[in-house]
Amino acid sequence: MDTNAVLDIGVAGIWVAAKLAAPVLLTALVVGFAISLLQSITQIQEVTLSFVPKAAAVCIALLVCGHWMISEMIAFTHELFERIPGLLGGG
After folding, report:
1. Partner of 80 at 20 to 30 A CA spacing, among 4, 5, 52, 61?
2. Structural domain containing residue 68
3. Contact 61/24 with Cβ under 8 angstroms?
């Protein structure tokens, strides 16, 4: 196993992690921005007004994107298992 193989696996892992985190983080970002804008306009500064809709939106994003996220992780795991013989020098 050489340095390039380790770097390739590391970059692929970071890329998969970023793809899996994107739907949840972008949902929280958009909902948080919308609620902050609403709070600025109405001058209502309540913490739960920001937290509850954001938590609900993240749950919905997980329900919508959950199947895709699992299939991405399965594909990445299969790719890693397929690379094992080559990494050990057997193929």
Report:
1. 61
2. 3-87
3. yes
